[in-house]
Write a structure and sequence with these properties.
The chain has 825 residues and is mainly beta. The protein is built from four helices and 52 strands. The termini are far apart.
């Protein structure tokens, strides 16, 4: 080879032979708080010979990478929920430190480019996480779009039953842990999600099932984390639906009204920020199938969330939240078979105070200390004191529950992120723990109910004893450790172990966690994931309080109206021997593939096997036939004892495709095949299941087939957009019963008709007198599908198997105000 040519090759190779130059730094948001999981990509500005170099920021926001030579580079930063930082120039002459800032997404117009979604094919993305961004929550036209609970149904594996209960991945509502900025906001009495939040203040909703991180527990089906928008150095404000609407169903009248307001900005620029969102609603719901004047229920509710951030020092950040909820509802329970007299008035109030101190000690060590106090109270008052009547033609009389409840939760937590170290790859350790102190008080003055037969004869009467006043407390705590082991650029393991303890039932439970992500091809357009986890449920306070509540006395009557014997008592007890925390074994697998730029296809499988679930069982009649009465009654009564005999199984296969465009425009479609079954008779008439079956039966929210698709797309005209939602699913299962309440045939072997909702809305962005508005008009249930919510399930009744409560078609209007145009507000 000629010497000259050899010299040219050597000179060209010199940058490759030179020692790598270390570039390290941190990614922060617009309030200088660290951003975990941001994807940093560095590439030469003028030399295409070097491939881009990518790395993820750690929990402290820090990152470290090596570039092959000095020179000019371009840097990109992407993270879900933030605007992308693109082509940021960086001059590298030697080892150096840089800070990269990305701004959180707020209310945007169509002309703005969001680029908010991190690629799901990255190996360090959570393999089982479903995420809704704040823009999706506000853009997609789901029914009652003011309600955050309804927004959660935009996730393909979340459904809502006819009574409004939420079911995540086939679970009961109290089998999920609900968090607000990392703190537990689950109802301490029932374990359900009953927090009101304005959808405009939401940054993201994250649901993880099958393989949640080791820091999460107290929910066999997973964890739901709601993240709130921060304030910034610019003032932002919004107002939504501040003009009352009209309802033209059954005549023109004042419709539901959901005014919401939000304001955020600096208290001290560059150091202290706030965001405040106010949510209120007045609703008047029409129930078809009832006479005029007796076919509506109304209520009002409000919430206010104040979120603050104080940068005490550049390495010490303080976060605080104060949330207040008020809810007053009348005629709760109104339905085609339950007229006004059977309804109750429910008044609820709660507040939550949280404080979290985040301290960065350097060298990659970040520690969070937090405390939260949650106070909750609710009263449920019937319309009168007459006995409640259950009959084949429908219900009458006054509902029997009359109660006043209050509960509190004090939560303390600490979690630490330790420095990365190298050992057959890189390791990121995380460890921590939390404790919850719970107190529960109840006063119960429930009356009773009667069961009448097809011929109008009295079959049984159940009355409750003297008023009960009781107090229950509990202490639960947990610790965990987790290692994120990055073996190589294409392979990552997450290994964790968690322990949960409960003082009252004297239980200790261990929860191992394992997740693997692998990118098998050089293109990095495909990711294969898998995982295994054991998860556990929390102990709810109403479960512990049931034995202290009123006892029931049931009298059975003969055909001639004479008592068949003396009234027999039904009581509840918690055994003296220790119980186990309900557990579930979870297996998951998935594959994510990037078809085209911004087009991703996902297929995933989840298998959950729940054991040791709580259920009250009558040892005197363990094989009693299933009954759909509020309390199974016969001539022997019973002492129901809390056991670990419940078993729940869930399987699902899901295929989805998602595409994003410039701006906030995107579309998504998913098909889910699932099976949710249990050996416990789950009935909405009871607070907890009271019977164990000999076989597994469909749960009342079992949905074998569901197709969910939604889109927010631009129209040909400037500042116009169309938003659609299509939701097609199997009808919910139900049982039929005889006049005494006993199930006839198999449990939950009948189904409601196929349910289909098609919602369409058109939106126009306008500027009026220098202020920005978004005007939206649309139709919910555009096809007019019946989608019934009730059925007469009594064999022999005149309306047997007649479906009631048609949904009807609804016209909706939304007006949103964004502040002054061109001012950054």
């Amino acid at each position: 080879m000629p010497v000259r040519r050899l010299a040219i090759y050597i000179l060209a190779a010199c940058p490759l032979l030179a020692a790598d130059i270390t570039l390290h730094g941190s990614v922060v948001n617009d309030n200088d708080a660290p951003v975990e999981g941001a994807l940093i990509t560095v590439r030469p500005a003028n030399n295409a010979a070097y491939a881009p170099i990518s790395v993820r920021s750690d929990p402290s926001g820090g990152f470290r990478l090596a570039v092959p030579a000095a020179g000019d580079y371009l840097c990109d930063v992407e993270r879900t929920g933030f605007y992308a930082l693109s082509n940021h120039p960086v001059r590298i002459d030697g080892p150096q430190e840089i800070t990269l800032q990305i701004n959180a997404i707020r209310e945007v117009f169509q002309s703005e480019n969001v680029n908010a979604t991190t690629s799901p094919v990255d190996v360090d993305q959570p393999p089982t996480e479903e995420r809704l961004s704040g823009t999706e929550v506000n853009d997609i036209p789901y029914a009652n779009s003011h309600n955050l609970r309804n927004a959660m149904q935009l996730m393909p594996d979340v459904v809502s039953d006819p009574s409004g209960g939420l079911h995540f991945a086939g679970s009961a509502e109290n089998q999920v842990q609900y968090l607000l900025n990392g703190f537990d906001i689950t109802n301490p009495i029932t374990g359900q999600f009953q927090t009101l939040l304005a959808v405009e203040g939401i940054r993201s909703i994250d649901f993880s099932s099958g393989q949640p991180a080791a820091q999460y527990g107290r929910g066999v089906a997973g964890v739901l984390n709601i993240n709130i928008q921060n304030g910034s150095d610019a003032f932002h404000y919004t107002a939504t639906d501040f003009i009352p609407g009209l309802n033209i169903q059954h005549g023109l009248r004042l419709g539901n009204w959901y005014p919401r307001f939000g304001v955020s900005g600096p208290i001290v620029k560059g150091r202290v920020w706030f965001s405040d969102t106010f949510d209120s609603e007045y609703n008047q719901t029409l129930v078809t199938g009832l006479p005029n004047g007796q076919n509506t229920r109304s209520g009002w509710a409000g919430s206010n969330l104040l979120h603050t951030q104080v940068n005490l020092t550049p390495k010490n950040i303080l976060f605080g939240d104060f949330l207040v909820n008020l809810d007053n509802e009348s005629r709760v329970g109104l339905a085609p078979l339950s007229p006004v007299s059977t309804t109750t008035n429910v008044h609820t109030k709660s507040y939550t105070v949280t404080i979290k101190d985040q301290v960065y000690f350097g060298h990659g060590v970040l520690v969070d200390f937090g405390y939260a106090h949650h106070q909750y109270s609710q009263t449920q008052t019937p319309q009168g004191t007459s006995l409640y009547i259950l009959s084949p033609e429908g219900n009458s009389g006054n509902y029997f529950v009359n109660s006043a409840q209050s509960a509190s939760r004090d939560q303390g937590l600490v979690q630490a992120y330790l420095p990365k170290f190298l050992l057959a790859g890189s390791h990121q350790l995380q460890a921590g723990g939390d404790a919850e102190w719970l107190h529960y008080n109840e006063t119960d003055r429930s009356t009773g109910y009667q069961v009448f037969g097809l011929a109008g004869q009295l079959l049984s009467e159940t009355t409750f004893g003297p008023p009960a006043i009781f107090h229950v407390s509990d202490l639960a705590w947990s610790t965990y450790v987790q290692d994120t082991w990055r073996v190589s650029k294409s392979l990552q393991f997450v290994l964790g172990i968690r322990d949960d303890r409960d003082e009252t039932i004297r239980a200790l439970a261990w929860s191992p966690r394992l997740a693997v992500s692998w990118s098998p091809f050089r293109s990095a357009h495909t990711r294969v994931t898998g995982g295994y986890a054991i998860t556990h449920d929390a102990v709810t306070m109403n479960l512990l309080g049931r034995p202290l509540d009123q006892s029931a006395l049931t009298t059975i009557y003969e055909a001639d109206g004479a008592p068949a014997g003396p009234a027999v008592a039904t009581t509840f007890a918690i055994p003296s021997t220790p119980l186990l925390l309900p557990r579930a074994t979870n297996w998951n697998a998935g594959i994510d593939h990037q078809l085209f730029p911004r087009v991703f296809v996902t297929a995933k499988y989840l298998r959950r096997r729940g054991t040791d679930g709580f259920v009250f069982v009558n040892p005197l009649a363990p094989d009693a036939p299933p009954s759909l009465l509020p309390m199974p009654g016969d001539t022997t009564g019973g002492n129901f004892e809390l056991t670990n005999l419940r078993r729940d199984d869930y399987d699902s296969v899901q295929v989805s495709v998602h595409q994003t465009f410039s701006g906030q425009f995107e579309w998504s479609a998913a098909y889910t095949f699932s099976r949710a079954i249990s050996n416990a008779l789950v009935d909405p008439n009871t607070a907890q299941p009271l019977q164990v079956l000999s076989n597994l039966v469909p749960l009342p929210w079992n949905v074998p087939h569901r197709v969910l698709a939604w889109a927010y797309l631009p129209l040909p005209w400037k500042n116009w957009a169309i938003s659609t939602l299509a939701d097609l699913r199997s009808g919910y299962p139900f049982s039929v019963r005889d006049q005494t309440g006993l199930v006839i045939g198999g449990v939950d072997t009948y189904r409601y008709p196929l349910n289909f909702d098609l919602n369409i809305a058109v939106e126009r962005m306008v500027t009026f007198h220098g202020y920005r508005f978004a005007l939206r008009g649309g139709i919910d249930n555009a096809t007019g599908q019946a989608n019934p919510t009730a059925v007469n399930n009594v064999v022999g009744a005149p309306q047997y198997l007649q479906f009631l409560g048609d949904e009807g078609r609804h016209f909706v209007v939304r007006v949103r105000f964004f502040g002054r145009a061109g001012s950054g507000k």
